[in-house]
Every structure is written in structure tokens, then in C-alpha cells.
Amino acid sequence: MKVFIVAGESSGDRLGADLMRGLQKAVPGVEFQGVAGPEMQVQGVDSLFDMSELSVMGLVEIIPKYLGLKRRLAQTVGAALIWEPDVLITIDSPDFCLRVAKAVHSADPSIKTVHYVAPTVWAWRPKRARQMSQFIDHVLALFPFEPPYMEAEGIECDFVGHPIAGIPKVSVEQVFEFQRRIGLNPKCPTLVILPGSRSSEVKRLLPVFCEVLSQPEFAQSQLIFPTLPHLAELIYDHVKSLRQECFVVTGDGLTAEAAASQRFVAFAAAQAALAASGTVSLELAAAGTPMVIAYDMGLLSRLIIGALLRVDTVTLVNLVSDTHDVPEFIGKNCKVKLIAPALAKILDNPQAQDYAMQSTMDRLGRGDTTLADRAAKAVLARLSL
Questions:
Q1: What domains are defined for the chain?
Q2: Which residues pair with 192 in a beta bridge?
């Protein structure tokens, strides 16, 4: 069996690695090609190019990189068609991945197309589901409320749970060892700071986050910045102005799996988090770390997305738990004067988000012993029909 698999950012890389492990377990000898990050590469993908080239966020922000992305699109489509896989699996990053799927399907409809992570048609741009039905055979959904949106447009869709719900809880011993190794003081309050996995996000959000952390209520806190190796220098440039002790944790020199595990332990070592919007809110919920979410983008992107948005919260923990327990400050509300009091309030009452975090993990499949293999089984079941 030949699988051409494409991921465009770190969260997709983690999903892809789990899916690949499931496929390898079910189909010994399965072959992979495609575009991958470090975790998928460990599982056997020799990436066509560095996946980080695809990590662009925002309608306006993508324009300067348009020609480069167009070349990478043609390269990816060409490689898939030459290899003639049994199935093309694209993961998240819809602006790039769905273009790949559309082009491959148009050139060779015999190649089955699967998209992992349903686009957020429930949040904005609902017509995407109808457009996808022309070239996507099967969607793997991470959230239980998503399949009806896809099935209404004639696309096969399976809720496969979220792999984050399958992450084992961090032990007290793991936290102590992490604190000892990087030099954290266990008696000091600790914040974990997550300004995004793309350089454009970090450049936009980290100055705001640093100003928040400069407020007197956080003066006694120590700060952990888990990040990717290629973003470390950018993080250092911003945090050197902070008076608190800062720990930039990259996982450099570790295996991809060990680095991901270290990141999760770093979350659990903190009393609260300040984070960009995205999948990271689910990771924090899995670690039991209460959070404040803040996010901004270019003015034009902000105006366009704001006009199209169909939900009153963008934080995944709020959406899955059907609450508004996690405070979020998006777009024009991404301001120090709003974020700082919310973060201080969480430090004073960290239990306030317990229900939302626990409910989210339960609904995404925590405790399901088959969770790790559900995506692979769904792919194989549809291929055999």
C-alpha cells in the first residue's frame, strides 16, 4: 500500500505521525511519501521540502510568499502523480492541502483523497464543504459535532477523536525532573508562554505577550517558552527585555517524540498559560493547565475574518465543552489592558477552568483504548468499500 501524505504545520505533523503508526500496525510494509515535519519523518517520510515553508497564517500575510508556495504546490502535486499512490492524505492547512488534493484528483481521479481535520465550516466559510465534495472522498474529523456538516454535502466523514485526548497524564515525578533539569524553582509561580508555531505569529504576538508579562502582578513568576528550534532565536530576541527568569525550551537534540513529551511536561509544570489561539488550547487542557488565549493578525485579515465568523468563541476548549470558561482576546481585543487582568485572575483561581478542560478531553475520547488507531482504521475501512 502506498500513501502520499502532506502536512503543513506542527499540529498536523503530530496527527500525521499518529496516523502513520496506526497504518503501519494494520498494514505491514505500507510505504509513505510526501511533505512532513520531524515527527512524521521519524515514521518514514522523506519530506519533499521543509514543512515550515508552508506555515503562513492570514489572508494578507500569505501574499509575499505566494510564488514560493505556488512552486511548492506544483512540486507536491507532481510528486504525488508520478508515484501513483493508493491514497492521498492531506492534513489540516486547508489553503495548501486542499489545493493539492484538488489538483491530484483532477489529474487522476483514481487516487483516493482523504483530508484529515475538517475545515472549520461551522465557524466561517461554510461553502468550503460543498467545494470539497468535488475532489475529497473522505474527511477525518477531530470533533464530534463536525461530521453532519460534511455529510450534508455528500462527503464521507468519520469522527476519529483527537489524539491529544490519548496523551497520558504527566506524573509528579516527570514535573520534578523537568524542573530540576532546566533549573525551575518549584516554589515560584510558573507561567508557560506560547505565542504560536509560525514566525509571523511570534513576531506579532510576542511583543504583546511580553508587555503583559512586564506588569507588576507577574514580577515574581518564572516563564517557560516551549518552542521549535527554528524559532528560538526570535524568542530570545524578545524575552531578553523581561526581568523574570525565562526558560526557552526547544527540544533541540531530542528525538521528535521526546521533544513533544517535554513540551507537554512543560505545560503541566505551569500554574497557568498565555497562548495563541489554536490546537495548543487542547494540549493545555490535556495537561490540566488553565489558560488565557490571545490572538491577532493583520488589519485586513482581521476585518475579513471578523466579517465572516459564525461563532462567538474561537477557542477549541470553549467550543468542545460548550462553555465560555477560557477567556479569549482576539483581534482588536488583543490588548495588554484586557489580557493581564484575566491572566492574574486565573493565577488566583486556577480551578475555574477544570470543568471545561475535563469535559473537552472526555468528549474528544480520553479513556478510549482504541483512540490511537481510529484514524487509520477509518481510512482503511473506506478504502476497502
A1: 2-161+368-384 (3.40.50.2000), 166-364 (3.40.50.2000)
A2: 224, 273
Give CA–CA dist 340/246, Å, rounded. Answer: 18
> Could you read off the pLDDT of 122-174 as tens digits, one per residue?
545 667 888 999 999 999 999 988 898 899 899 999 999 988 898 888 999 99
Q: Give the bridge partners for 295, in sequence order.
A: 330
The structure's pTM equals: 0.75
Residues in Cβ contact with 29 at an 8 Å cutoff, skipping those fewer than 6 apart: 1
Give, for 5, the enclosing helix (H) or strand (E): strand 2-7
Q: Which of 265, 296, 285 is nearest to 176 (CA)?
A: 265
Cell numbers 523537568 correspond to what residue?
178
Q: Cβ-count burial of 154 within 10 angstroms (0-12 exposed, 13-18 middle, 19+ buried)?
A: exposed
Cβ distance 251 to 231 under 8 Å? no
Among candidate residues 167, 352, 130, the one with its CA nearest the CA of residue 265: 167
Q: How far apart are CA 209 and CA 236, in angstroms?
A: 13
Residues sharing a CB contact under 8 Å with residue 105, sequence separation 6 or more, in sequence order = 111, 113, 134, 135, 136
List, for residues 356-366, the tens digit of each pLDDT value: 999 999 999 99
Question: Which of 75, 111, 112 shows the shortest CA–CA distance to 96?
Answer: 75
Residue with cell 509528579: 172
264 CA to centre of own chain: 13
